[in-house]
Write a structure and sequence with these properties.
There is one protein chain. This protein is of the alpha+beta class and 93 residues long. It contains three helices and three strands; from the N terminus they run βββααα. The protein folds into two domains: 8-56, no CATH class; 58-93. It has helices spanning 45-56, 58-71, 78-91, and strands at 10-15, 23-28, 33-37. A three-stranded antiparallel β-sheet has the order 1-2-3, with helices on one face.
Length: 93
Amino acid sequence: METKHTPGPWKSNYRKGTGFDHGYIIERTNGQSIAAINRDSWQTSGEYEANARLIAAAPDALALARAVAGHFKDTDAPLGQMARDFIAKATGA
């Protein structure tokens, strides 16, 4: 499978500043920025932080789903289907 996203691992870092310099930055471990998210007024600080962590975990989640799908490739086990559905959603397939 071809990887079309920036390779992981990713991490989230909070950067205090103003405007676009303020908020969570999702970046590779080498410091290369992947995305920036700013808090909307409807989000609690807990939701905002949790969303940043969830985005940062995406490459690991995709790798896990691929491993699970591979393990269940010859079965119709619900866990295998969940993994295949996740892969399709994450990759746009």
